[in-house]
Amino acid sequence: ASHVINFAQGEFLMIGGMATVSLTAMGVPMLLAIVLAVVLAGLLGIALQRLAIAPAKNADVVTLIIITIGASIFIRGLAQLVWGKQYHVMPNFSSDQPIEIFGAVLNSQSLWVLGVGAVLVAVLVYFFTRTLTGKAILATSMNKDAARLVGIRTQVVLMLAFMVSALLGSVAGIVVAPITFTSYDIGIILGLKGFVAAAIGGLGSGMGAVVGGLALGVVEAMAAGYLSSDYKDAVAFSMILLVLFFMPRGLFGAKIVERV
Question: Which of 90, 174, 182, 227 is 20 to 30 A from 130 in CA distance terms?
Answer without folding.
Answer: 174
